[in-house]
Amino acid sequence: MLQKHAIGLLTPALAEIPWERSGVPLNASRLQTDLAVGRKYVREQSYEFLEHRCKISIKSLRPDKLLDLDEMLRSAPVLQEYLRSQLLDQPQLSGIFDRPTLRTLFERHLSRAGNHADLLGRVLTVETWHRLFVRNTVAQDVPLAAESECASPAVAGMPLA
After folding, report:
1. How is residue 18 annotated by DSSP?
2. Chain centroid, CA 93 distance in Å
């Protein structure tokens, strides 16, 4: 208490700065300080309670996996064909990845010899990024948000090709 009073007398500007623990300045009244500490305590306790309740309710509503990508790749012919056309059949790939290795991974995944869905998804992401932002080409069959007026290269500060 004496320190608060001394700081208030010696450096009034410093006493006006809110204290990190309570959020009120040092020259605040005892009531303001107690209310701020009480609000902080109630906020922390309610957050812990609500976080626990939210975890329980979300676990009861959702399955273990929201999106089973490995099974989708194995069972959806449209998705398989899209992945094959984007990663294996295009002649102008980035050259970052070895095409025979990608083909082996894809075939092993389809034959259930391994689960490579995450790796194939990452490779597809890198190849798509390379096609859009390095080569500046957009696939004609897939509408993308990058074609909108807001995402044009001139707006993003990139020079037009």
Report:
1. B
2. 27
Q: Which residues pair with 25 in a beta bridge?
A: 18
* Angle, CA of 85, 73 and 114, to the nearest 5°: 110
Task: Report how far residue 77's alpha carbon sits from residue 68's, in angstroms, rounded to the nearest whole number.
Answer: 15
H helices within 2-161, ranges in order? 2-10, 12-15, 30-61, 69-75, 77-87, 99-110, 117-129
Q: What is the pLDDT along the chain (161 residues), one digit of tens a residue?
A: 677 778 778 888 878 887 776 678 877 888 888 888 888 888 888 777 777 666 655 555 555 556 778 888 888 899 899 888 888 887 667 788 888 999 999 999 999 999 999 899 899 988 888 888 887 766 555 544 444 444 444 444 444 44
Q: Please indicate, yes or no, whether residues 54 and 82 belong to a single structural domain of this protein.
A: no
Structural domain for 10, as ranges = 2-61
Per the domain annotation, does 155 fall within a domain?
no
Residues 75 and 21 in one domain: no
